[in-house]
# Entry
Amino acid sequence: MATAEISRRLGLRGFLGPSFRSGVNVIGADGGRAVHFDEEAGRRGLADALRFLDHVEQLADPLVTGVLLPCRIETLTPGLLRDVARAADRRGALVRLHALQGNAERDYVRRTYGRTPLQLIADSGLLSDRLIVPHGVVLDVHPDVHGTDTGDIAVLADAGVSIVHCPLTNARYAHHLHTFGDYRARGVNLCLGTDPFPPDLIRGIDTGTQVAKLQARDLGQGHLAGYFEALWTGGAAALHRPDLGRLAAGATADLAAFALDDFRMGVTEDPLRTLVLNGTARDAVLTMVAGRVVMRDGRIPGVDLDALRRAGQELFEVMRAAYPERDHRRRTADELFPPVFPRG
# Structure
């Protein structure tokens, strides 16, 4: 609830809710991966999420929308997934579910439930145009699965499921969507996510377009226009908000402006291509939400960004120091976070 209040104060548009799960990934004494479940914790989490939906409804603020945010699919029991589906149907709520993102997830779900993650989603009743799935990578067409189309993409497209493509994360883990162009051509609504730090969609688009060229072995297959469409109208479609993601009469005045006049940007050819090839999200000079300027020239009124950065660094150091407690091999923080070059 505090996040909703901060979002409102800053003037951000938020689709918010508490994440919840009934299990947590663990490593056993033998080094094998498993999930430790507490079903009651999952039920309490869903109850908290539904109370948050009630809270947002009472706020009646057009900038804040309550959504259901169950965690990764392998950390949710089939029963909890069905409860989420029923709650979403009853409330007409959007559901974001991290799924179809890795081989470990797929192997665990198949081994535990005898179904693929996509089949588990379908059996739960979650397949609909209210479902938003980051990352949607591990489907039958992926080379690590079958490498051929046996119908997974059609299932998603026919149900109207939206896939949140996170190209920067995918590149960092060397696990790419197969492929951006094919998903779009087969009718899947694609939108874009950041997922890692930095939350920079410009870097993400640049990464995604370069990966698309490599996959196709064709310089003409970068799909730059498609990436921007995923950013604008794809995201709006996933959120069921046709008034977002476009400049048109009656649309909401949510805008972002980027400067191309920095010497380091180089010459300007097509403005969007120049921004992606030569710029980053740091070139944003103005953001507007519902007609209100939220950021101008890198500053947010009333927010001390330097203090927030210091606080974030302090919190990270605490988290870094706690990692050895969760490492089954009990490695030190320096071993888990080694420097690029050895320190003398």
